[in-house]
Design brief:
4-stranded mixed sheet, 57% helix, 222 residues
Length: 222
């Protein structure tokens, strides 16, 4: 890798947020060096590059750090602007994609976590999460992906639904993403994880399940 194009990614194998960045880099064909972080013992490099939040993911491009996964995805698209487009060129469509990406992070993820972890009124939490996922599903319309015929920003951000949500459901014993409730979203999920690049950016299912079980047990004991 040429020094002027040195790219590093700091993340963790089980994080959908760092996996998003990995997906974007690979779709763009960008070579990068990956650093696996232990969040119980954060490296001096992580603290150096992200001293404010001290979180992953962090992308370092020519020693310049970029943090927060949504910000990083846009940076990647603007920096390596040839080849695979992550965001549409049209300003309205770009703003539309940004809206749904934020909807996923700010609304859907919180609702999914609430549905999986809540011990009181869980059914209500499940119904609320399904309502939000239905809104997301409607955005697919008749398209193969949220980006149309190719993977785009919203698809990458929705990676948590295609892999992590299924594991959440299995560990928590709830049903959110089913063919009966959300048929289009299920079809999208199957299509998404079948993509060659995406396949290589998914965590091992058995390892993820074990990790989530440990996490859920820790939360339940508090």
């Amino acid at each position: 890798m040429a020094e002027e194009e040195a790219v590093k990614l700091f993340g963790t194998w089980r994080s959908p947020f760092s996996r998003r960045v990995e997906i974007a880099l690979k779709l763009k064909g960008v070579d990068f060096e990956y650093y696996e972080e232990d969040l119980t013992n954060k490296s001096h490099l992580l603290l150096k590059y992200n001293p404010v939040h001290k979180k992953i993911p962090v992308l370092v491009h020519n020693e310049k750090p970029i943090v927060e996964s949504l910000v990083i995805l846009e940076y990647i698209d603007e920096t390596w602007n040839e080849g695979f487009p992550i965001l549409p060129k049209d300003p309205y469509q770009r703003s539309h994609a940004r809206f749904w990406a934020r909807f996923l992070d700010e609304k859907c993820l919180a609702a999914i976590e609430e549905a999986c972890l809540r011990s009181v009124d869980r059914q209500k939490a499940v119904e609320e999460a399904c309502e939000l996922l239905k809104l997301l599903e409607n955005e697919l319309k008749d398209n193969k992906f949220f980006g149309g015929e190719t993977i785009g920003l919203v698809d990458i951000v929705a990676n948590v639904i295609s892999c992590w949500l299924k594991a959440f459901q299995q560990v928590a014993g709830v049903e959110l993403l089913t063919k009966e409730k959300l048929p289009k979203l299920c079809e999208w999920s199957d299509e998404f994880v079948s993509h060659a690049v995406i396949k290589g950016c998914l965590p091992p299912s058995d390892k993820l399940l074990a990790s989530l079980r440990a996490h859920f047990e820790t939360v339940a004991s508090k």
